[in-house]
Amino acid sequence: MSIITVMFAGCESEGIIGSVTWRIENGTLTVMAKGPMPDYSSVDNHVPWYCYRSYIRTVVIGNEVTGIGDYAFAQCDALTSVTLPNSVTGIGFSAFDHCYSLTSAVLGNRVTTVEEWAFSGCYALMSVTSLNPTPPYIRRNVFDGIDLNKATLRVPAESVEAYRAAEVWKEFETVTAYAP
Known about the structure:
By secondary structure, the protein is mainly beta. The protein contains two helices and 14 strands; from the N terminus they run αβββββββββββββαβ. The protein has helices at residues 3-7, 160-165; strands at 14-17, 20-25, 28-33, 35-36, 58-61, 65-68, 81-83, 90-91, 104-107, 113-114, 127-130, 137-138, 152-155, 174-177. Strands 1-2-3-5-7-9-11-13-14 form a nine-stranded mixed β-sheet.
């Protein structure tokens, strides 16, 4: 019996909940759905991959997922980066809250809303890329606890000034154009 097997005894490594299919293998969590992921009422055992939260290094989100649910990946403290596909339009409350190892996040070009505390407590977050030419609506506390003077925001070249003027986004010290 391997250490991994013992560590996660009693935990499912894959499942189907409503329209969401998920699987974890070698530290990669893959989430597929047609439409939005469900919102979870808290981080604890309501999130199906909760017992793997310290093991998940990578999250792969399917191209038909349209929303990231509340608390979906909160406290995944080994997660280092996340790239949301262009199908995602919204990121839920505390979705990536306290992912301590998260250093970069890429938001697809259709993200229009980022809810409260979505990336709060992600103290290692140094790079955020938003592919949407229009700055998504975000709440003041989305990046709570992150030193935005040290983080870099990358946006479409034609949108640099719009992000520099937009609420919360303008708090990033460095806003640059990304090279596609």
